[in-house]
Structure formats: C-alpha cells, structure tokens
Amino acid sequence: MCDPITMAVISAAGTASQISAQNEAAEAQQQAAIDQQVAMNAQRVQEMEEVNRKTGLELTETKRESLREQASARTAAAESGALGGVALRNLANVYMQDAIDSGSIVSLAESDVVRIGTQSQADFLQTRSRINQAESQKSTGLASALQIGASATTGYMAGGGGGADGLNWEGSKKAFGKTWSW
Q1: How far does Cα 99 stand from its chain's mean position?
Q2: What tens digit of pLDDT does each residue of 6-46 get?
C-alpha cells in the first residue's frame, strides 16, 4: 500500500489535469463557434453585396428600357402628328410602368435583405448558444478546488490514511499539551 500523502497528491494532480483539459476543450469549442460566426458573417456580407449588385443591374436595365419606350412614344407621337392627350397618355403609361417595375425590383431586394438579416440573427443566436454551452462545461475556481480536495481525500483514504487504523489514538489524546480522555 502506498503512502497516504503520496496517494492524495497523485489523485489531486490527476483531477487538476482532468479539469484543465476539460476547460481547454471548452475554450476550443468556444473559439470554434466564434470562428464559424466570423465565416457566416462574411457569407452574409457577400449575400448582401450580391443583392445590391443584382438590384443595381436590374434597376439600370429597367431604366434603360423605360428610356427606350419613352423615346419610342415621343417618336410615334411626333411622326403621327398627334399631340395632346394620346401622346401624354402613352408617355404617362411608360412612366407608370417604369415606376411599377422599379418598385417591384426594390421590393424584392428589400425582402432579400430582410431574409439575410433574419438568417444573420439566427446565426448569432446559434453561436451564442454554442458559446454558452461550452462555458457551462468549464469548471470554476471553487468547483475545481472542491473537486481536487475531494480527489485528494479519496486518494488519502485509498492510501491507508484515515479510519481507525490510520489514526494515532495515543498521540491525539495528548493534543495541545493536554491529555484528553474519551
């Protein structure tokens, strides 16, 4: 049987090592969650840039088409010699269609932005949850001290310390310079 003090030290050291490894693993999980969030943020930024680029191209194309139709309406009015209501009505229709098309493009872009924002919030909440879960796996200072102390006590007892066999009854009766009886 080993010395009780040696067993206590070995047991405490093993527990401390285990706690340290557990805390390091939890920190690694937290860092992985943060790294994943950074990657997801970069992806959302790319999605937003794509929405903006696509919207800009579609609005530009719609405006070009509108300008062509306006020119056609003006040309047709000038060639036919029709002035007044008909020409203005045709031109107003072109402007109206341009506004409707542009509004539709912007509305679709806004819904894409909302979708990307909602996904970004969901990503953040998921990351926050993973970080909190990893944090809960860490041992605090007090919990670590209690675990190490309990382990040391168990090791001491396993090494033959404590109990009726491990106590020096005669020496303990004379504690503090006084003889005690029980």
Answers
A1: 41
A2: 888 888 888 888 989 999 999 999 999 999 999 999 999 99
Q: Are 137 and 28 in contact (CB under 8 A)?
A: no
Per-residue pLDDT tens digits for 131-174: 999 998 888 888 888 888 888 888 888 777 665 444 444 544 45
pTM here is 0.63
How far is it, in rounded angstroms, from Cα 163 to Cα 1? 15
In total, the chain counts a number of residues equal to 182
Q: Token match 């932005």: residue?
A: 113
Number of H helices, E strands in the chain: 5, 0
Q: Which long-range contacts (CB under 8 A, 24 or more apart) does 86-95 make?
A: 94/66, 94/69, 94/70, 95/66, 95/70
* Cα distance between the two ends of the chain: 30
Nearest to 57 by CA among 102, 17, 12: 102
- CA 182, CA 176: separation in Å to the nearest integer? 16
